[in-house]
Amino acid sequence: MSLFNRMFEKKTAVASAKPVSKRPTSFGSGALTAALHWSGRDNSSLIQQGFLGNPIGFRAVKLIAEAAAAVPLICVLRGKRIDTHPLVSVLKSPNHGQTKSDFLEALYGQILLSGNGYIKAVLNSDGHPSELYTLRSERVSAVMGKDGWPVAYDYTVGAHKQRFTAEGSHPDICHIRSFHPQNDHSGLSALQAAARAIDVHNGASAWSKALLENAARPSGALVYRGHEGQGSLTDAQYDRLVDELELYHQGARNAGRPMLLEGGLDWRQMGFSPSDMEFHKTKELAAREIATAFGVPPMILGIPGDATYANYQEANRAFVRLTVLPLVQRVTAHLARWLSASWPQDFQLLPDLDLIQALSQERDALWRRVSDAGFLTDDEKRHLLGLSSKAGARDG
Question: Which domain, by its residues, includes 92?
Answer without folding.
Answer: 40-192+288-354
